[in-house]
């Protein structure tokens, strides 16, 4: 896994060459193919994901924090009782990742997950009655960070947490 992560990081470095023009970043089209990309200097990136099973079957989660050099700083995994929906499981994994990141002292964090609907709800302060208590908790934690971004990446680019 270390070799795969290193190759992903090196590939990302190659694709980031020349991304700046006149001091402004150039937007690159996101595709399903590709690899993890490093966060901005001074930030860390926390990728998170959940494996979902309904009912009493345990679900799992994973998160990994890396710096702007791609170095793994911290990581963790856990299990919890299954949730009713995939979205509830993703929210649970995200809250766990937020709490771990905060407890480890990181305050400028980009969280990256592979559930587009959850990322959209979080960033747009959306409403979803089934998920509202999860969203409220996420927004409460968000306010504790100096800077926090929440971004979506396809599962293929979130393999380290998946």
UniProtKB/TrEMBL annotation:
Domain named RNase H type-1: residues: 47-162
Superkingdom to which the source organism belongs: Eukaryota
Composition bias, Polar residues: 14-33
Residue segments, region Disordered: 14-34
Matching Pfam families: RVT_3
Molecular function via GO: nucleic acid binding; RNA-DNA hybrid ribonuclease activity
Protein name, UniProt field: Ribonuclease H domain
Record organism: Arabidopsis suecica
Taxonomic lineage from the root: Eukaryota, Viridiplantae, Streptophyta, Embryophyta, Tracheophyta
